[in-house]
Amino acid sequence: MKTIYLDHAATTATDPQVIDAMLPYFHENFGNPSSIYSLSRSTRNAIENAREILANAIGANPKEIVFTSGGSESDNFAIKGIAQALKDKGNHIITSQIEHHAVLYTCKYLEKNGYNVTYLPVDNNGIVKLEKLEKAIRPDTILITIMHANNEIGSIQPIRQIGEIAKKHGTKFHTDAVQTFGHIPVNVNDLNVDLLSVSGHKFYGPKGIGALYIRKGTKLTPLIHGGDQERRRRASTENVPGIVGFGKAVELALGIMEDEAIRQTGMRDNFIQTLLEKIPDSQLNGHPVNRLPNNINISFEGIEGESILLNLDMYGIAASTGSACSSSSLEPSHVLLSIGLTHEFAHGSVRFSLGKHTSQGELDQVAEVLPGIIQKLRAMSPRYNK
Ligand SMILES: *Cc1c(COP(=O)(O)O)cnc(C)c1O
Asked: Which one, of 246, 248, 147, lies nearest residue 200 by Cα?
């Protein structure tokens, strides 16, 4: 049985062309980029080539890019780096209640270390309210960090407008663009951001490689101290194969982005409509229009999302309840509670996230088996009496 993989928001398979690009950097071109012999020159060039590809993709200068170990490190670096560098200016940070844990738990950590954090609520569609954001800004606010699109419910934030507000008040602005980069246009000037996080494995690059965009003139204290790599902003011998693979993945993603966004949006809306029609007491979570092209998040009343996933797995269908990080806890997702779902609906949610290999035929198969699964689980559920 071939797996129907519908969990691309959690991770993607590394593209074979990406692997081919990486391979020579494990054995032939293995030189330490910091060394002076010619063997090292080629690895140095390969890194700078990848840096340029990413910089061009987001409208940045290559000098404004630091490679990291992934989205989590980029988020930690941006938030802790600003908090530390600007601590004489203030200790207040603004974020939202629906951020990824890499942002949320970093903010919680800072709260334990003398910083104040405002966690902005969102509306029922998962969108930050601009008036509330502006009201939350204080003279001691040093950073606003709001994600570009949510990994669970797909809602896309008005980042450009948030950036305008941040600029007006002289506050630094970071966005976690891990779910959007490679899937929809991301340009640091259009978005008005000072810092932006991306991760390779969310767009068919390797795991363990990401980047942080740092606008020129933005003071940031390093997270990792040691050597002089990455213009002294991140020590450690560069992950050369990872960086090369990252660059290749960016190239491939940009080449198909526009067409894929249109194709996936069509399949997404069709799939949502079909499921809501076929299955009673179900509802879409997240913004109906301003959402990631590949994100479908639906709640089914009266049953557990985990039971649905186990049943789908018996048909070879891989989906998620939303966040890979919360799958080990019994608490419903902080995102679903923040958009006002009752525990009843929040527990019964499933996220399907599409990818470049997803076909209409695969979605048809899911739409074929899911109504039966829901019906069976509801018949056994003491919490569903309709
Ligand atoms: C996956 C993800 C991350 C974490 O990225 P890693 O590269 O796995 O550390 C951060 N933020 C968002 C929104 C994500 O989806």
From this structure: 246
* CA of 73 relative to ligand 1 center, distance in Å: 9
- Please report whether residue 222 resides in a domain: yes
Please indicate, yes or no, if residue 386 is contained in any of the structural domains: no
Q: Is 186 in the pocket of ligand 1 (CB under 6 A)?
A: no
Q: 196 CB under 6 A from ligand 1?
A: no
Decide if 106 is inside a domain: yes
pTM of the predicted model as reported, rounded to 2 decimal places:
0.97
Q: Which of 204, 226, 252 is the last residue of a domain?
A: 252
| Tens-digit pLDDT profile for residues 2-50 | 999 999 999 999 999 999 999 999 999 999 999 999 999 999 999 999 9
CA nearest neighbour of 148 among 107, 197, 199, 218: 197
Note if 107 is an active site residue: no
174 lines ligand 1 (CB under 6 A): no
pLDDT, one tens digit per residue, over 352-363 is 999 999 999 999
241 with 305, same domain? no
Q: Are residues 90 and 192 in the same domain?
A: yes
* CATH assignment at residue 192: 3.40.640.10
Residues 6 or more apart whose CB falls under 8 angstroms from that of 297 comprise 152, 153, 154, 284, 285, 286, 322, 349, 350, 351, 352
